[in-house]
Amino acid sequence: MTSPVLEKLSSNKSFEGELIKYKFKSAALGGLPANFNLFLPTNASDSDKVPVLIYLAGLTCTEDNGSAQKGSFLGPASSQGIAILFPDTSPRGAGIDGEDDHWDFGTGAGFYLNATNPKFAAHYNMYTHITLELPEVIEAAGIPIDWKRQSIFGHSMGGHGALTMYLTSPQKQYRSASAFSPVSNPTKCPWGEKAFKGYLQGGIEEAKDKYDATELISKNKEPVHILIDFGTADNFYKQGQLLPENFLKAARDAGYDEFQVRVRSQEGYDHSYYFISTFASDHVHFHANFLKA
């Protein structure tokens, strides 16, 4: 099968590296065009492939939220010689009835799963898009990424995606995972319940073993490297959408100590990119410990 052609849409020099926006026709998303941003540090070359961090953004976001000035990831990544891949959060333009009716479901809210509800199954396959398609497309284009050294992180819905992909991907695809304000126990919060009932034919029951980080960590037997930060002033935390304590309890009950699973409450911080940018360097350096080993 011929790999889709990457179209380079823009390029900006940043922290001595290059931030590039690409577009291609995505088979995983039903033939729709898909955009992503890729930051390559200055040391990336054909003779020196670099490790990569995948950043998954949250509800209503695109590939631009984390890669623009908001995230503050590029400087730390450049200093560590690490690339960062910024995918989109959902298919765009599928034309499915109702997909644009709500901000927390449909466009901009793909929840990083593979839909099994026939209404969405042809297009809403963000799990495959992130874990399989993007690495294959980027590698086929000859871009100097070392796909044997990849880790994953994300924010909110993207934190949910990062944790679940880390805990379910085959052959330990990712060396480490981290999250800012993740939706940690989505089968028990309104956002997750709405997404799973809409995208999955089996609803919440189908999601438990595939897309709920708290359920997954409770059954996991492999060593893990996970860092989570959330803010105590986060309104979504207060509303019960995030539930990081549930994840932490499940991890401790499963035998994981603070060196394997660390969950930090950050006093007074909210859900915004002001919070993310404050701890962005911490997360990049956390992953560097494993990506550069």
UniProtKB/TrEMBL annotation:
The protein's name: S-formylglutathione hydrolase
Annotated Gene Ontology cellular component terms: cytosol
Principal subcellular localisation of the protein: cytoplasm
Family: Belongs to the esterase D family.
Top-level EC class: hydrolase
Task of the protein: Serine hydrolase involved in the detoxification of formaldehyde.
Coiled-coil intervals: none
GO molecular function (one): S-formylglutathione hydrolase activity
Active-site residues per Swiss-Prot or TrEMBL entry: 156 (charge relay system), 234 (charge relay system), 271 (charge relay system)
GO biological process: formaldehyde catabolic process
Keyword annotations from UniProtKB, A to Z: Cytoplasm, Hydrolase, Serine esterase
Gene source species: Lentinula guzmanii
EC number in record: 3.1.2.12
Upper classification of the organism: Eukaryota, Fungi, Dikarya, Basidiomycota, Agaricomycotina
Hydrolase as UniProt keyword: yes
